[in-house]
């Protein structure tokens, strides 16, 4: 029996991998343009890091086990807790604000389906130590810039405020976590059962109405009315955030008081981005302001960030027919007859040393089979090394996109090959 890959994991072939790397590169460029720098943390962490404050949803989905020394460890289900751990041990010595991003694989034991995997890749960005409004606006703007740069246009950005909901619930953290978990899952039966257990059944109806509020600034007034007695601070904050985001060119924000988030550490603004083309697993990004440093024993400091599901942006880009800047092989060198093989290898070296990506037949195939191969791997040019051209220190170059063939000196071929078309 052949060994299959574990359920919920993926193999990626060369074409898929090139698209993933292209998206990753675009996101990294956007983060650099915004002044974020890359950091990396381990894939495996002490279990406590994730059980302390990530919430019941994530804890249930952890890949947790004992290592050979009997220590409880877990594969990371996300980056935020690791970044805060790293911040408390080292990063806090850097000048503030700390603006960092990471890309890597994370693990959640979920029920797999299209766009939902047990191992997937996140692109994660965090700002620690910037005043809330400034930091929140910067991360929301970066998230939108990331999608714009990839070329995904059909998106819904929804912004809410979990702090208002927490203030309304006024419950001890564990009970609050459960209520918020059921709200996030939109499981109103479980929600009602939980509220009944807490003697708060009367809250079920207003909570349900509240999380359905979605639209322009008017929903902030409606939200304030429903949560009467809690104050309006969070709603005023969202108005100020929208005003600040206009300065970043972000015009159309949807306020969505139903953005509850599956993780327990959020305390302020929360936001999500959907790509409606993706069906059930349409959320490509989630994030918001949180307080984890305090939970891990640090001083209070504003923290905010987001993570994209890289797999889902790649799917969203494909659904919209976005042409990603996938690198192609520039030249495939074909000797016309066995005696020209040495000359062809020399040509190959010259091209490679000049920075042109070049490949050559390794199987001793004839010219026509080699041309088929060059087309199949989407090379840009076939470089035919023949007797007559060689004598003139030239090669025959076939543009595999247009089918046009001409004789060129190697220098001219190099110049042309290095002019790569932009996607
Ligand atoms: P999250 O919403 O749990 O947030 O995950 C972020 C994104 O990862 C989701 O929006 C989704 O695109 C993707 N994702 C989640 N689960 C899966 C899955 N099973 N398969 C494929 N993609 C998935 C966080 O992880 C927070 N740490 C984000 C954050 C950073 N908040 C503040 N800073």
Based on CA atoms alone, the radius of gyration comes out at: 27 Å
Strand order of the largest sheet: 1-5-6-12-11-10-7-9-8
User: What's the helix count?
Assistant: 16
Structural class: alpha+beta
Total beta strand runs = 17
Assign a percent range to the helix content: 25-40%
Based on Cα principal axes, name the global outline.
elongated
Could you state the oligomeric state of the chains shown?
A: single chain
Distance between the termini: 43 Å
Q: What composes the largest sheet?
A: 9 strands, mixed
Average pLDDT for all residues: 94
The hetero compounds bound to this protein are:
histidyl-adenosine monophosphate
- Uncertain runs are none
Strand content: 15-25%
What features would you describe in this structure?
By secondary structure, this protein is an alpha+beta fold. About 40% of the residues lie in helices and about 20% in strands. The protein is built from 16 helices and 17 strands. The strands form three sheets. Strands 1-5-6-12-11-10-7-9-8 form a nine-stranded mixed sheet, sandwiched between helices. Helix 1 runs antiparallel to helix 5 and helix 7 runs antiparallel to helix 8. The longest helix is centred in the first third of the chain and has 20 residues, at about 15-35. Histidyl-adenosine monophosphate binds next to strand 6, strand 11, strand 12 and helix 12. Histidyl-adenosine monophosphate binds near residues 79 and 285.
